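SAMPLE LOG
Freezer: B-3
Tube label: C17
Construct: single chain, 445 aa
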Amino acid sequence: MSLAQLEIGLLWLTGSIAVIFILTIGTYYWYSRKRSNNYLENDDFNLRYFIQKQVDFRGRTTGYECLLRQQNTDGSWSLPPQLDSLPLQRVIFLLEDTFKALPDEAITLSINLEYEQIISPEFRYFVRWAIANIEPMHLAIEYTPQYQPRRINKRLFRRRIREARGYGMQFGIDNVGASLANLKNIQWLLKDIDTLKCSMRSFRKEDPSVWLDLNLQFWNQLSKENNIDLILMGIENEADEQLAEQLQISIRQGYLFGHPINPQQSTTKENHEMPKPTTDDVNRQQLYSDAYFDTGHWGLKIRQTIVGIVGWIAVIVPITVTVLSIWSSYNPHIPRFWHYHEGLFEFKFIGILLAFCFALASLFAVTMTIIQNRKRERVVEQWPTFNPINQKKRQQLLAQFMADRFGNAEFREHTRHYRVKPEQNLDTNQIQQLYQQNNLDDIND
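STRUCTURE (predicted):
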């Protein structure tokens, strides 16, 4: 194969690889934009979570449901038209204020999410964040199949749900009605469902001639057969509650027990001006030192400077000789140091290979940089890369261990003198072994 043929072949191969990398970047960027950027990500839209309580047959509050609302131009609040377009990161931002208004009780907090939000790679981070932040409340994610796309990835959806349930999340189906389509939409999910919500609005027959495919008793029986908790919502009057009593549906929700409440209260945040770091603070933060740049040390500076100059000469001289010799083969006015035909051929051959390798490495580096930067912006910088649930369990376990060995926290923090007994000393890797015994040795699960 001649040098020209090799050059043409490598050029075509480089072009083909470049097209593949460009398509990869374009596909990834489009996919990430489709998943994460939408109109509800715009901060100009005023969104807020309202809460509505759920009660049992004794009237005790068993949980709260978070209902997303968007503020209209007239100041009223209504349901946003596209719930699936709300990024999970903004869901967290909105829920932070809502969580502050909730009671510190071991009851259930329900949050409605859509198909696109659940199959998102960020779903697992969201679930772990929510569980860790609402403790002692229990997290329940509710899903409405009526609003899902025509084509769904059932395998991916179930994998996301099962992984989240492994963290302690409950999964519920919201707003099942009297149509056979409601049953068809959830049959493949029955093994993964913890709660079913029926709305009274779907079962009120204003026209006696209208036929209902399914009734409340059907959903009640289906729930019992599959060990699913049934919740009757939309209860607006005493007749609705009597029906729930008759069917022995213990958990209820509706306007009879309270309308959705806006939990956000006006709070003022004090802005504390951070003190400027002093010179001593900067020195304490210095992680390394170099005598070459410090005051004095002239012998070290002269010696290292000479070594540096000699090293650069050893790099620059061979490059200059090679470049001038190759250039002189095209321009006789350029001084040459050697003019061997074999050397020229070898330089051109290696130059083509190096150019190909450089192009290939550059394409790979640029592609991976774009993808990793996008991933960092959407995941790493927005979500904890560790499991906050296990981290909180670690803190509680370590606090209990220290209390058992050295006394409670109040005693340890206020005592002036304390003598540690020999048997109280910690063995090597004892804390790590403590985590392993409680399956908490890895917080990245």
